[in-house]
Design a protein that fits this description.
- It contains 2 helices and 4 strands; from the N terminus they run E-H-E-E-H-E.
- It has 75 residues and is of the alpha+beta class.
- It has a two-stranded antiparallel sheet with strand order 1-4. A two-stranded antiparallel sheet has the order 2-3.
- It has one domain (4-74): Alpha-Beta Plaits (2-Layer Sandwich), CATH 3.30.70.20.
- Helices cover 13% and strands 21% of the residues.
Length: 75
């Protein structure tokens, strides 16, 4: 199965949690840190170069994100 990864622009994210719920692999969580706007943004929990990534690049997180803060990469 192909692997993917995402990048979350933490300064755009308002921490709504929709991406956390949408991710079928559990690769996203809400951060304990605050962004510049005072929100707890979502964060990707996997290493981009790891061979053990669970992310498949399905893009469900990016599709549901109301802030357009998630970029998806496949391959």
């Amino acid at each position: 199965m192909k692997k993917g990864f995402i990048r979350i622009n933490t300064e755009l994210c308002k921490g709504c949690g929709l991406c956390v719920e949408a991710c079928p692999k559990g690769s996203i969580r809400i951060s304990n840190k605050l962004n510049i706007k005072g929100y707890h943004p979502a964060e990707y929990t996997e290493k981009e170069k790891s061979k053990n990534r669970k992310c498949t690049g399905c893009a469900l997180c990016a599709i549901i994100c109301p802030d357009i803060a998630i970029e998806v990469f496949r391959g």
